[in-house]
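User: Hi! I'm working on a homework problem where we have to compare a predicted structure to a textbook description. Could you give me the structure for the chain below?
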Amino acid sequence: MNRRYVSLLREHCARWLTRIRPLAATGSTKARLVFHSALRRLRHPTRRGVALTLAAVPVLFLLYVLALVPFTPGIGDIRRARADRPALILSADGKLLAAFKPVNREWVSLKQISPYMVDALIATEDRRFYAHHGIDWKRTASAALHTFSGDRQGGSTITQQLARNLYPDEIGRAPTLTRKLKEAITAFKIEAVYSKDQILETYLNTVPFLYNAYGVEMAARTYFRKSADQLDILESATLVGMLKANSAYNPVLNPERALQRRNTVLGQMNKYGKLKPAAYNWLTRQPLNVDFELQTTAPGAAPHFAAQLRKWLIAWADRNGYNIYADGLVVRTTIDSRLQAMATQALNWQTNQLQWIADDAWNERTGCWPGNELFQTFIRQTPDYRAARDAGQSDQAALRKLGTNPTFVRALCRSKTQIQAGFVAIDPRNGDIKAWVGSRDFSDEPFDHVQQARRQPGSTFKPFVYGAAFADGARPSDTIVDRNVAIPLSGHAIWRPTDAEPPTGRPMTLRDALAYSRNRVTAQLMQKEGPEKVARLARAMGVRESPLEAVPSLALGTSPVTLKEMVSAYSTIANRGAYLEPRMVTRIEDHDGKTLAEFASASPQQALPAGAARTLADAMRDVVNRGTGAGIRTRFGIRADVAGKTGTSQDNTDSWFILMHPQLVAGAWVGFDDGRVTLGNYWGEGAHSALPMVGAFYDMALRARAIDARAQFGPETQPARTVHPRRQRHFLFWRY
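Assistant: Happy to help. Predicted structure tokens:
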């Protein structure tokens, strides 16, 4: 037996005994005898004892490896991981809305990748790639010896690196023996499932290259503005050089280091016969020639809708054993691509008009100047201001310095004064969401003003008050005196609702009060019905996620809600009082077209008596025929049977308009993300900011016959006389 091994074993035992001797000294007489007996055997081991000890080490190691196997990916998981088949999200009319990819990657076959890329990869990362079965034992042993001597080196093969890339959570990246063993086991499994070419293809399509570029195709486009099959030998060597450390060898930020690393890769190619010496000498003298272009993922036709759908689909896939990134699911949604395009066009048209007004009101000479107290507040909330104060500047000095910096002022002003909007349309007959636009630009503003934003709905909340009254037997012809009222609140507070017009002191019908959006009359009706009843009705009709504070001012929309909730609730009115939960998906199929799941419309829940719903819809017709929403008739010339309601929150912070048609209910919200910024008394009103968006949408939808202009809600009163379309063309000073 090798004396060196025996000597090492004795040294190890001596160190162990030094640690446990104090423990033995405190034990019983029997324990001390056992300890001293063991001590004699360790100090004078027999050849048989040493042999058994050494033989036990590989056995224990093998048992440990076998114990790790269940904690590595299974063969089935490995087969699925290579397939890059994202879920496809289709509109109701079959148009592609989105593809759910895990990363910004476009999968290409090995034939579509430059052979220089493959040669550079193998020469640099794994020169015996075609000779091993997942682990290069020679390289592993060499790396271990260098590591023990203090010069740490990596010994992972391409297959092992692929295992890490595919399963970072299962394998991990910690420099431990357990991680290396899991990596090796997974590499063996991969080699058992895939051919060498498939491994190369998968590796080159999954490796990251910074700037959200995954895979060689996106890397080629990002750094050289070309496809992977067009990469030359220098470009291939540059990309392979990045694999050692993306950031350190980033050719955009660290060109000198990237050049040195590229030449190292060329040296490996020369060393292993992939380059001739003369070519190598010439190539190493060439510049990088990077042509950088950041790759962005196209947001798609309905990006906010797709973002909400992704959350729902992930949960469904997890429950049913599917992977939305690899199983090629086909999800058929309720979105109508024509209506989605119209909604996007209408929103962009109106918000662009309003942005001109906002820019005029909030420029460096008016709103966005250091003398404006609100703008000073904005400055104080910036990191630049906090940095100035931390540096010892006074409040006034920091404000003066930043306020006279035109670049800073312009950027801050723009961030605070960008008009935002949300738009959603629902078919009231089945709850299908037909259009969804969450902001002006998903890339700039991914925040969703349909589903995520909670804003005060203003007078668009009033129909719930009138609906509760009609459900209790009130009629639109019933009257309430238009007078000043003082409504006691909790404690000693008094609420005194006001209108733009002074009180008349005369009776006003409920129909007129709703048409002209009278706050004083609505507040008195709220007193009669009770805030709790109105809040319950609003929840039953569709406002089911946002909390509603059951106080008298709720009648004027003081509790923040989402646009989706409000349009859903108005759909309940259009559907004769029956609430239908909004539906996004009708069917899910596999990649072969087999139906995996179907989703029927939700069962209707009668939230408002049908008679009361018809009465409410009839009263809301007058909002459009002669009230605050008359622009639908006079400006847009819409003659279809429609009803709706405008809404403006306190201080003109939020602007709303929701319009009901028997086949489609659509609503819009317009405002700023920071509620302290407004458009003023005129443009801040829902009739002037949100209504045109909805009007333009319905005008396009009716012209395209996406909805039937002849559809009727049911029994109706004679509409008030309005301007004939041919006589009001001079009002149409707009284009969309």
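For your comparison, note the following. The chain is about 45% helix and 10% strand. The chain has four domains: 3-70, 102-283, 363-416, 420-731. Good luck with the assignment!
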